[in-house]
Amino acid sequence: MGYDPNGATRNAPEGATRCRAVTSGPSVRSADRRCRPLEARALSTENVPRQFKRAVRPRRGQRCWRKPRALEPAWNMRAVPSRVPAFAIVRGPMTSATGLLSRRDFLAGAAALPLAAGGLGRAMATPLNAPFSVGAFRIMPILDGPFGLTPALIPDADSVEGEKLVERAGLPKLGPWPQPVNVFAINRGDRFYVVDAGAGATLGPDLGKAAERLAAVGVPPERVNALLMTHLHADHAGGLMKADGTALFPNAELVVQQMEVAFWSDDGAMSRMPTSMEPMFMIARKALEAYKGRVRTVNGSGEAVPGITFVPLPGHTPGHAGFLLADGKEQFLIFADTIHSALLQFPHPAWTVVFDVDASLAAATRRGILDRLVIDKIGVTGSHIPDRGRIIARQAGYVLVD
Ligand SMILES: [Zn+2]
């Protein structure tokens, strides 16, 4: 689906209904959000999807098109539903062989998390359910799908403190605890970048929604100029490829840390890892092969594309990195897999996930970048957290706040 800068506002999409913007009462924000995707006034003649424009809040009584529900891109799991009791997550069967929650259960559980993670009376962070700007950059978070963490994946969570946090969040003691896999579309001028590509067809049917959701918001694969890779784990690199293993993004260069490419390409490294990691190596290699001739490697904190630099965050993988967006005085960091569970790892940054290639380095890196963010006070989000905000120190850990 290509983006037509003019047509979409003249013609409502198939199945769309007229809606009246509600600008009073408690639902102002949701009305704003509901109408934003087809907000005509947010469009200019510039060849840029209107979703990337600053939202224009509908005036009282102003009419706008509302997309039919099924067509709405799920920018993030927090978008719906807004207030579901925490216990909702324990209902309903698992839907896939991967043991992931159904999307519905995931949404229900995730909606309950902010209360548990943030606590009463504390400033909560901003849900990743809408585009936002950093200077001239327009960033749109896209949910690739949910995955479930368990105590087996964060062994330190199998503890009195872990159980307390999980119980307070209303989550099942043994998991799965739902986490998002986020992809970020970034636009500046006529350039379109995508940070990570989601899981594609590699990790089961609950994941791999990024491509269709990107297309639904006006960023089809052929429009993407550069793929900015935080690292090459399957939930980030699987979506680079179609199901047949060929490149999904025909015009994009793949920008990744040199060390990351070296690690996944190294037979010696593969032989030193548990055999269960072999599929990860194969997926990373397939992705690099699919983009052969257009992989651009960067060392350390070099520039990925104009205004966006790598922030090396080694440990999770050797070339694991975040991306710092900077425009004028505005800065924002996408810190990738620094945190896999906001609930558990913000208060306990020493707790590691079993996916870490070097767990103690990953923990030290996490502590280091979170300390830096406390001082720098810049906005941040990540690949597996449902919000964006600033980091503050609290007790022995950290909290993400608005
Ligand atoms: Zn990840």
What is the strand and helix layout of this fold?
Layout: H1 7-10, E1 17-20, H2 28-35, E2 63-66, H3 103-118, E3 126-127, E4 132-134, E5 137-149, H4 160-168, E6 177-188, E7 191-195, H5 210-216, E8 226-228, H6 234-237, E9 253-257, H7 258-265, H8 267-272, H9 278-290, E10 295-298, E11 303-305, E12 308-312, E13 321-327, E14 330-334, H10 342-345, H11 359-376, E15 379-381, E16 387-388, E17 390-394, E18 397-401
Parallel strand pairs: 7-8, 8-9, 9-10, 14-15
Antiparallel strand pairs: 1-2, 3-16, 4-5, 5-6, 6-7, 11-12, 12-13, 13-14, 17-18
Bound molecules: zinc ion.
The site of zinc ion has 6 residues, from α6.
Domain Metallo-beta-lactamase: 180-384
Keywords: Hydrolase, Metal-binding, Zinc
Protein name: Putative Zn-dependent hydrolase
Outline of this structure?
The chain has 402 residues and is an alpha+beta fold. It contains eleven helices and 18 strands.
